[in-house]
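Consider the following input, taken from an annotated entry for non-specific serine/threonine protein kinase (Herbihabitans rhizosphaerae).
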Amino acid sequence: MQESIGTGAMGVVWRARDELLGRTVALKQLLIRPGLTDEQADRVRARAMREARISARIQHRNAVSMYDVVEHDGDPCLVMEHLASRSLSAVLTERGPLPPREVAGIGAQVAGALAAAHAVGVVHRDVKPGNILIGDNGSVKLTDFGISRAQDDGTVTHSGLSAGTPAYLAPEIAKGEEPGYPADVFSLGATLYHAVEGAPPFGTDANPLRLLHAVSSGKVTPPSRAGELSGALTKLLRVEPTERPSMAQTAALLETLPAETQVPVPAAWPVPPPAAAAAAPVAPAPAVGPSTMNFPAPAAPARPPRSGPNRRILVIAAVLLLVAAGVIAVLLTREKDAGTATAASTPSSAAAPPPPQTTSAQPTTTAPTPVAGKIDWAEAGRLVIAYYNSHSDQAKRWSMLSSRAQSQVGGQQAFISCTAQFTDVSARNAYGVTPNADGSVTVPVDVTHKTATGGSAEKRSLVVTRENGQLVIDADTGSAPCGIPPKSYG
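Applying the prediction step yields:
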């Protein structure tokens, strides 16, 4: 064992080395607290074994894998996949509320892992920021199935007042009901709410009983920062379990958010004309879900009268405007037809070639070429990390660039000569990926460049696209060293 990387109620997690297979693993060592009776100690050991069996059922790229169980001093030790990472809880402490699209990306990956768990009959029961790992390579993984319950498991967890963390519990669990699949959906919604709003939906009361009472009421404070994520949160945080989407539907919902944030406008609200909207922007209204969500609905302003002189005047004016527009359109059409007829009737001994076109006379706008195939954000993050961490293999780094990027750096030798000025290059924290209009993605990453005289650390953003079926680095959105061409994506 090399170092402690976490502690919990059941024991301590170590970063360890699997000497047989030559890999780094996470070793969860069970610690039996002094003072427990033999029966209580056996129950703790049984719980650890249950976690191992349940975790072994779940095979998904966004769930921490269970490798093996070994014994130490008569107690089980769980051997698990190791991921260089920080918990989402630590990320939120450092950065505060995250952008809605970043939160949606994290949520979609966690929902995928939970959907795989539900498919094999496992309820996690403790979905929260502390149990979501954000890898240095951009990957997202769900961990800690310590209090999970398989639907075919007859044992019951004895862990105190309730199963799970109160701030993220579903209302039905706070009322004493057994947790089912919809409870995980609510807990994921509460976790994403915290990530985008900065606090859990029921607050952070230090008194667990008072917090449980608030949870049982189901009265969620409407989100104010969630933007395009508000609608999804509304569905996940519905009070009635039967009204929540399944976890598979949740994953699909989070993967297909609209490209831009749009302020929801209830049908009863009058929509101002564009000029008025530009002159006096209206603050976005909170998304309103079903009545069971208990979000306060905004009061609808008084509607204009349906009849009367003012309405008749407006109708007449609108009709006159339409008639005038029609007359103008007819006149313009006739003028165009007349000009065409005159040109056609002009005698000519030979057909004159069309005048040459100049590119400077009429600039055109070309839409970006769509990227073939959806780009997995975690895979894009891993590519960016690998690009910087392969400094010792410049030929490999060169192969990671797109043909467009290679054509603009002056050739492979120029690229290698430039990068040779650095004695070492490394990168970490490739998460917070955002999609671009052409299907590529922009990956922010912390990069450290070292030279013989010192070093520098900075945040860079690389654009990853797909070329010939492979992910490649297409551009740097800023002023990049060693020739990766900058390119702006809106």
